[in-house]
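Notebook entry, structure prediction.
Reason for the run: the old model in the group folder had no record of what sequence produced it. Starting over properly, with the input documented here first.
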Amino acid sequence: MISLTINRAAMRAAMPARQQLAASQAVRYASTKSLKDAVAEVVPQKQEQLKKFRSEHGDKSLGDIKVENLIGGMRGLKVMLWEGSVLDANTGITFHGKSIPDCEKVLPGAGDLGLQGKEMLPESMLWLLLTGNVPSKEEVKGLSEELAAKGKLPSYVEKIIDSFPKTLHPMTQFAGAVGALNHDSKFAQGYKDGIKKTEYWKPTLDDSIDLIAKLPAIAARIYYNVFGRGDGVQKIDPKKDLIGNYSEMIGYGDNEGMTDYLRLYIAIHGDHEGGNVSAHTAHLVGSALSDPYLSYSAALLGLAGPLHGLANQEVLGWALGMQEKVGKNASEEDIKEFLWSTLKSGRVVPGYGHAVLRMPDPRFSALSRFCDTRPELKNSSIVQLVQKTSKVAPEVLKEHGKTKNPYPNVDAASGCVLYEYGLKEWSYYTVIFGISRAIGALPQLVMDRALGLPIERPKSMSLDALEAFVKK
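New structure, fully documented this time:
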């Protein structure tokens, strides 16, 4: 027998360009790398990048802090390192340099894994946020299988959730159950056993993946206990993606539109820079070396505030009130009159404006695009009213002249779609947001440990101390 060995470089040189591209893509998508392996490759690169940057530029100023910054909620101050996303006032959010439209094009979606639907999967976004790289279909499939395998709740957590009174707010229940999972924290045990500081990121990643895997089951059990909807047993199918299982658990498994909407909603809500209350809280509590369960439990309590995660409920209530007033087939003039009546009464128009953005929220645009592709939403009176309002409101708000950003934010659209699909329990909406935000906050916690970031401890001053300082 004659063995023939051909040099690979020579083979590539003989290939047409199109065949070379196909071959390179075939190699990429054949990857069976686990997420932990992928993060392990990234960590040394990030450590070296931080070390070099700090050495070369540590004494450079990022701007002066003014009294107004101190008493104005520190808005806009560049005081946090956050790897996953950057929010620009004029261009919107990017995830490791990729916009939402970019992500919709390159991140594997439901159809890529042979599932019903076509929206990008939160697993794909999680991989991107943790590694900075676009995962292959095989890598996302492997991550989905890992999350499904870890998704079942321990019996003690089920008992804790079942012991909560139905009248206790779903977010309070959610935060409590997440905190209780700390009982099994690998990071807490590793720290107790004296694990090296350079290895902290590994059990932090283990805990984070475990927590993300269990969030749907926690949320579904709360939904069943409080509202009596869903399967009541939190059954997990290993062949389904994270949100496919979640949708099944809350009773929407046979609704392709709702399931795909939840995928998109949770993927694009996952990370929105580090300065928002929930993300910042996870980072702050984690800086004390609290484990991911405790850190994210605290983040959820911040997300429960009406100025943060509850905003879409306020928008939906206002929109339903408008529909009752102007009818289901309102003209643009009808909407304009209602907007002016809201403003003249001294109220703001909910769902418009943003603390950072000075443009339409790209997340709103993504949800709006989804609505335009679904027949059931194109025929929905409340969804179409919200869509019409997004075209009328900016001009009214510009004329009013008191809004820095007159464009719709994500809350202008997110709640009305859930409502149209039949999920009308408003107090539960922020729980869904809570599933999502973990995809951004927990990867940063892993990176905090990988980079050895210190405990967060800003300087505070009293009013008397401030007055004395400015008189110097």
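Summary: Residues 150 and 213 are 6 Å apart (CA to CA).
The old model has been moved to the deprecated folder.
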